[in-house]
Design brief:
Number of helices: 12
Shape: globular
Radius of gyration: 22 Å
Largest sheet: 6 strands, mixed
Low-confidence stretches: none
Distance between the termini: 24 Å
Strand content: 15-25%
Order of helices and strands: EEHEHEEEHEEHEHEHHEEHHHEEEEHH
Strand order of the largest sheet: 1-6-7-8-3-14
Helix content: 25-40%
Structural class: alpha+beta
Number of strands: 16
Length: 437
C-alpha cells in the first residue's frame, strides 16, 4: 500500500468575519482536556462522478468543499480562531478562544494506489488511515499557535476520505458532529443551518471568568509519551445481536439495562478475559456522561464540551466470573448517579481544585464517541459515506471508538488494543458468536 502525498495546503477563513464576540471563555469541561489530543474522525465516500461540463476540472469538488467550509465557518467562529492565554502574577494561567478568524487548515492529498477495499477489508485498520488526518500528534494546548480545525480531503483510487481534526478543548463529540453535519448541509446548497450553534448559555453565568489554573498543571507531562505497539480493529455488531445481549443482561439481573450498556459490558468482559492479568488487578471503565440532556440550562445546540467521565472499577477476576448483566448493572447504577446536581457539583469542585486529564492510564477501557451521532447522514452533494474511521489522536490500550453501523440499529466498535489481546479475542468463540462478519 502506497503512502499519502500532499497536493495543496491552504488556510480557509470564514467568508464573513464579525468583529463582535471576539472572546469565548473556556469552561472546566474544556480546560480539563488541554493535555490530551484532538478529536479525529473521518468519512469514506465513493469517488464522485464528474458531470460532463466539469470533466475537464477534476478539482471542482475540492474548490467546492473549500468554499462551503468558508461559509460554514461563518456560523462557527470558534473553529476559525486560536486559543489564547493570560499569565497572572500568582503563577496561574487562563485560557480563552480568540475568534480572530485566523482560519482553518485545509489539505488536499492523494493516497497513491490505495483503494477503498484496502481501507475497509483488512482485519486490522491499516496504518495508512492515520495519514488521512491532519495535525497528528498535537496536544490541545498547542491550539495557541496551531489551527483549532483542520480538514484533509484525501483522494483514493476509487474513493474520497474526508478527515477532520478539531481541538478537543473546543468541542466534544456532539459538537464535532454538529459541525460536520452543518458543513455537509451547507455543501449541499443550504443557505441557513437547520441547527445553528449556541456559544453562550445561562449555566455559565455564575462563573467568575477567567478561570485560573496553575501553570505547573499545564507544563506537566510535556515529554513525548511512548506508547506500546497497538493495533485497531473494527468489530461489527448487528441490531439483532445487540438485542440478544440486552435481553440476556436483563434476564440475568432484572434491571432496565440499555442496549449500549449490555454491549459495552460484553466487550469489556471479553477483552479482560483475553488479557494476561493478575486476577486481583483493578480494572476501570470510563464512560462519557453527557450534560446537555441533564441540565436544562444547556441548550441541545450548545457548542463546546459538555461531558464528564463516570468510572466503574472492578477486579479482573470479578469481570471474568460475573455475568454480562452483573457488569451492566454496575454501569447502569453509575449512570443513574450522574444527575444534573452531580454535574453542577463536579463543575464547581473542579474550579476549586483543577485537574487535567492525561493519556497516562493503565488497565482502563474508555468509551469514545457515540452511535447516536449522525455520521452516515453527511452527504456533501455526491452521496452518503460508506464507512467511518478515526485518527491516531488519544489512542491508548483500551480505547473504544463507537460508530453507528451502516445498517440501522447496528453498532461498530473500533477497538485499540495490544495485538496479543486482539489476536486472543479473534479466537474466543464466545465473543465471536456475537459478531457480524
Amino acid at each position: 500500500m502506497e503512502g499519502v502525498r500532499c497536493i495543496s495546503s491552504t488556510i480557509v477563513q470564514a467568508a464573513t468575519h464579525k468583529a463582535e464576540n471576539q472572546r469565548v471563555e473556556l469552561t472546566p469541561w474544556d480546560l480539563r482536556l488541554l493535555l490530551v489530543g484532538p478529536i479525529q474522525k473521518g468519512l469514506l465516500f465513493l469517488k464522485p462522478k464528474p458531470s460532463r461540463e466539469k470533466e475537464t476540472d477534476q478539482n471542482t469538488f475540492i474548490r467546492h468543499l473549500r468554499t462551503s467550509l468558508s461559509h460554514t465557518l461563518d456560523y462557527f467562529p470558534t473553529l476559525a480562531g486560536r486559543l489564547a492565554t493570560t499569565e497572572h502574577d500568582d503563577e496561574t494561567i487562563s485560557f480563552f478562544i480568540d475568534c480572530n478568524n485566523a482560519g482553518a487548515l485545509f489539505i488536499h492529498a492523494e493516497a497513491d494506489g490505495v483503494t477503498i477495499s484496502e481501507v475497509v477489508k483488512p482485519v486490522y485498520v491499516p496504518p495508512v488511515v492515520h495519514s488521512f488526518f491532519p495535525l497528528n500528534g498535537l496536544r490541545n494546548s498547542e491550539g495557541i499557535f496551531k489551527p483549532l480545525l483542520a480538514v484533509q480531503v484525501t483522494e483514493l483510487v476509487d474513493g474520497i476520505f474526508v478527515g477532520c481534526t478539531i481541538n478537543h478543548s473546543v468541542v466534544d463529540g456532539t459538537s464535532f458532529w454538529h459541525f460536520f453535519n452543518s458543513w455537509s448541509e451547507i455543501s449541499r446548497g443550504s443557505f441557513h443551518l437547520s441547527k445553528p450553534p449556541v456559544f453562550q448559555c445561562s449555566f455559565f453565568d455564575s462563573i467568575n471568568y477567567p478561570i485560573r489554573i496553575p501553570q505547573s498543571l499545564v507544563n506537566q507531562f510535556q515529554e513525548e509519551l511512548i506508547l506500546p505497539h497497538l493495533k485497531e480493529r473494527v468489530f461489527h455488531f448487528s441490531k439483532q445481536s445487540i438485542a440478544r445481549l440486552k435481553a440476556k443482561a436483563n434476564v440475568e439481573v432484572g434491571t432496565n439495562i440499555s442496549s449500549l450498556q449490555a454491549l459495552l459490558s460484553h466487550f469489556w468482559r471479553s477483552a479482560v478475559r483475553n488479557k494476561k492479568l493478575d486476577p486481583n488487578e483493578e480494572m476501570r471503565y470510563c464512560m462519557p456522561i453527557g450534560a446537555r440532556p441533564r441540565l436544562h440550562e444547556l441548550p441541545e445546540q450548545y457548542f463546546g464540551n459538555a461531558i464528564k467521565y463516570g468510572i466503574i472499577t472492578m477486579k479482573a477476576k470479578e469481570l471474568q466470573e460475573q455475568r454480562i448483566g452483573d457488569i451492566a448493572r454496575e454501569m447502569n447504577r453509575m449512570v443513574a448517579t450522574q444527575t444534573g446536581e452531580e454535574l453542577k457539583n463536579d463543575f464547581e469542585s473542579w474550579i476549586a481544585s483543577p485537574k487535567l486529564m492525561t493519556a497516562v492510564m493503565r488497565n482502563v477501557m474508555i468509551t469514545s464517541s457515540s452511535p447516536r451521532f449522525n455520521m452516515y447522514g453527511n452527504d456533501f452533494g455526491w452521496g452518503e459515506p460508506i464507512s467511518i474511521r478515526s485518527g491516531s489522536g488519544n489512542k491508548i490500550d483500551g480505547m473504544l471508538t463507537l460508530f453507528c453501523g451502516a445498517e440501522e440499529g447496528s453498532i461498530d466498535i473500533e477497538a485499540c488494543l495490544l495485538p496479543e489481546t486482539l489476536d486472543a479475542m479473534a479466537n474466543d468463540q464466545e465473543f465471536l458468536d456475537t459478531l457480524t462478519i
